[in-house]
C-alpha cells in the first residue's frame, strides 16, 4: 500500500545507535548502475529515478524516517570524457545534498559501467580508474567533513560472471570470467591506493552477492566449489588467493553481503523459498563470512518486490539480530534500492523501494507497510 503523502517532519523513528561503523543501522541505497545492455543502451539509474534532480529531497526523506547513512554513486562515464579530462559536475549535487542533510554516504565509483573508449581488460583501465578514484576522493574530502567511505567496484565477482562468462552485461564476453575478475581486483586495489594517497583515513567497502546452492548430497563437491568461488574476490583482495595481484589484508576493510529472496536455489536452478527445509538461514551465511574474514560486515543490498517488501525486511532483520547475538560483527542493513527504478532489460517500473518514482512535482509515494516494518525494526534495535 502506498500514499502520495510525504513522511512527517519528525519521522517514524530515530535511528538506533547500534552500529560502530555507520551513522545508522539501516542504510538507504540509491540504484546507480551505468552499464550498457545488449541492445547498446547505456543505463543511468540515477537519472532514470530523477535522483540527480531530487537528491536533496531524497536525503531529507531518509533522515525523516531515521536513516542517516546511504549508498550512492559517481557515474564514471560522465566524469571521465577521455583525453585526461575529468569533470565532477554530475556528482557535486549528490555530494552537497548529503553534506546538507548530514547523511553519511558510501560512494560507489564503478557500478558495472565505464567510459566507452576504455577496454576493461587493458592496462589503461586500471590506470584511468585509479586516477578517477583519487580525484573523486579529493572532491568528496573538499566538500564533506569526516571520514569518507568508498566502494571502488560494485560486485566484482558478479560482474566477472555476468560480463565475462555469460555475456549478459558489458563487456559481453564468454569464457573470460577469471581474466575479468583478476582485472577488476587489480583496478580496485589501485583505486584504494589512490584514494588513500588523498584521504588516508578513508574506509573501503567491498560488496559481493552471497548465494546458496543446495547440495545434491552430503559431500557434494559442486556445493563446496560454489561457496569458494563466491569468496574469490574477497580472498584476492586480502592476498589469500592469487597474491600476485597485490592483495593484502588492508584492502579488505568492510565486507558487504548482497542478499535477496532469489539467492538460494537447487542444482536444477529452481529457487528455494524461505519455508523450504533446504533453505539455509541467512544468519548462517552472515556468520560464515564474518568468521572467515574477521572484518566488519553488513547487508550491502537487500529488497523484495511488491507486498513482500515488509515481510522480507522482517526476515532479514531477525536473521541479522540472530547473527549478531552469535558473535558476527554485522554493522547494518542497506535497503537497496530505496526508490523504485526501471528494470534493466525491459524498462518497466520495478516496485522494490521505500518510495516510488516521483510525480511531476518531484514527490515520491511512500510504501506504508514497508515503512511501518522499518519503524518496527528500528524500535527493536533500540530496545536491545
What does this structure look like?
The structure is a single chain. This protein is α/β, with parallel strands linked by helices and 384 residues long. The protein has a single domain (2-383), classed as Glycosidases (TIM Barrel), CATH 3.20.20. Helix content is 38%, strand content 18%. The chain has helices at 45-48, 51-64, 76-79, 92-101, 123-143, 156-164, 177-198, 221-230, 232-238, 282-293, 309-325, 368-383, and strands at residues 2-3, 26-29, 69-73, 80-82, 85-86, 104-110, 149-153, 203-209, 212-213, 254-258, 264-265, 297-302, 330-335, 341-342, 349-350, 355-358, 364-367. An 8-stranded parallel beta barrel has the order 2-3-6-7-8-10-12-13, surrounded by 6 helices. A 3-stranded antiparallel sheet has the order 1-17-16.
Amino acid at each position: 500500500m502506498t500514499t502520495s503523502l510525504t513522511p512527517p517532519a519528525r519521522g517514524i523513528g530515530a535511528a538506533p545507535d547500534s552500529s560502530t561503523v555507520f551513522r545508522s543501522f539501516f542504510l538507504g541505497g540509491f540504484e546507480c548502475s551505468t552499464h550498457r545492455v545488449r541492445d547498446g543502451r547505456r543505463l543511468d539509474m540515477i537519472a532514470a529515478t530523477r535522483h540527480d534532480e531530487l537528491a536533496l529531497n531524497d536525503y531529507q526523506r531518509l533522515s525523516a524516517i531515521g536513516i542517516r547513512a546511504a549508498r550512492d554513486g559517481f557515474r564514471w562515464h560522465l566524469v571521465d570524457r577521455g583525453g585526461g579530462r575529468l569533470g565532477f559536475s554530475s556528482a557535486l549535487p549528490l555530494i552537497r545534498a548529503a553534506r546538507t542533510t548530514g547523511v553519511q554516504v558510501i560512494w560507489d565509483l564503478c557500478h558495472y559501467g565505464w567510459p566507452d573508449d576504455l577496454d576493461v581488460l587493458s592496462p589503461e583501465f586500471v590506470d584511468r580508474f585509479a586516477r578517477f578514484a583519487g580525484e573523486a576522493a579529493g572532491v568528496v574530502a573538499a566538500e564533506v567533513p569526516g571520514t569518507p567511505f568508498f566502494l571502488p567496484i560494485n560486485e566484482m565477482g558478479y560482474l566477472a560472471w555476468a560480463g565475462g562468462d555469460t555475456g549478459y552485461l558489458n563487456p559481453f564476453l564468454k569464457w573470460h570470467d577469471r581474466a575479468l575478475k583478476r582485472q577488476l581486483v587489480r583496478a580496485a586495489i589501485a583505486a584504494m591506493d589512490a584514494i588513500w594517497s588523498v584521504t588516508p583515513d578513508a574506509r573501503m567497502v567491498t560488496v559481493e552477492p552471497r548465494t546458496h546452492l543446495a547440495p545434491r548430497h552430503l559431500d557434494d563437491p559442486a556445493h563446496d566449489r560454489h561457496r569458494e568461488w563466491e569468496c574469490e574476490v574477497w580472498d584476492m583482495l586480502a592476498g589469500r588467493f592469487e597474491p600476485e595481484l597485490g592483495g593484502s589484508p588492508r584492502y579488505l576493510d568492510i565486507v558487504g553481503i548482497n542478499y535477496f529472496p532469489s539467492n538460494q536455489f537447487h542444482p536444477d536452478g529452481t529457487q528455494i523459498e524461505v519455508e523450504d527445509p533446504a533453505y539455509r538461514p541467512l544468519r548462517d551465511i552472515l556468520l560464515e563470512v564474518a568468521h572467515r574474514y574477521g572484518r566488519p560486515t553488513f547487508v550491502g543490498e537487500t529488497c523484495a518486490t511488491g507486498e513482500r517488501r515488509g515481510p522480507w525486511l522482517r526476515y532479514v532483520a531477525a536473521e541479522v539480530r540472530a547473527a549478531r547475538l552469535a558473535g558476527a560483527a554485522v554493522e547494518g542493513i542497506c535497503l537497496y534500492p530505496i526508490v523504485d527504478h526501471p528494470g534493466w532489460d525491459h524498462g518497466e517500473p520495478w516496485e522494490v523501494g521505500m518510495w516510488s518514482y516521483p510525480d511531476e512535482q518531484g514527490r515520491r509515494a511512500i510504501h506504508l507497510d514497508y515503512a511501518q516494518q522499518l519503524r518496527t525494526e528500528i524500535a527493536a534495535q533500540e530496545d536491545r
